[in-house]
Every structure is written in C-alpha cells, then in structure tokens.
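@channel sequence for tomorrow's demo:
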Amino acid sequence: MNMTHYMSLLAENQPWNLIIFMAIPVICAETLTITEFFIIFNKSRSGGLRTLNKIVGIFDGFYFTGIFIYLLFNAVIPLTTSGGWHTWVDVVAVGFYLSGVVFVLPIALMELGVIFKNKTENQKTKIHFILIGGFLVVAHIAMIFGMVNPEIINSMSNMSSMPGMQ
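structure tokens (generated this afternoon):
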C-alpha cells in the first residue's frame, strides 16, 4: 500500500518517529485540553493544574515549533522542489499537521507574557481554549488525511462508471 509522507514519517525509525512526531505533541495537547476544562470549570487562577497547564503549554509550543522547522526544511521544501508529493491528500495531511504551530506557539508566547499582555484573565482563558481547540482540529484533519492511501485518489477520477453516478 502506498502511504502519505505523514504516515511514512510515523512508520519509519520505530518507535522514535512515532514518539517524537505524534505521541509527545498529542499527549501535550490532551494534557492541555483536560487541564483547561478543569481550570475553566473550577475558575482556577492558580494551583497545581494551572501550573501544569502553563508548563505543558510552554513546552508544547516550543517543541512543536522545533518540529515545524525541522519538517519544513527536511520534508516540505525537498518534497516540493522534487515534486515528490503523493497527490493532494499528502499535501493536506502534512500541511494541516504543520499548521498546528499557528495554534501552539501562541499558547507558549501567551504563557510567557510575550503576547496578549493587556488582556484580562477571562480573555486569556478564552484565547487559550480557542487555540487548544484549533490545534486539536488541525491535528485530527492531518491524521485523517494522513491515513488515506494516495493511490485511491488517483483511481477516483472517473467515478461516472459507478452505478448511480451518471
């Protein structure tokens, strides 16, 4: 079976690529999500969960930024210049995966007080929640498209021969 580069990356160099590119970012995102629910529900401004949320947010933001930079120069640019993409599905999977940086880097920067300094705590909590949600959405889109066999996309171009598709 032909795979997207997203799935190839996770399948190669087992278990390290799976841990580096999937497990760590996803576990961090899930930790952020779960702690965020508790923080919002309990209206917590301090405490152990808030501290954990802050530490994980900073770590994940910079960790994923490192992944973004690494894959940009070692996968995206070489695949684009060589025409090595396996159909548009491959581009969508990798593109959505890498777009996660748009959501997690601002979380780190917000936690460090670099951005959104003049926002109230409620506004920061809302922004934080939206950013976490955005990351989860793009990560799941990447996973879904990453699991598609690119060969089926090429064979779907002529669907008019299927019953009921005329």
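heads up for whoever presents: The chain has one domain: 5-150.
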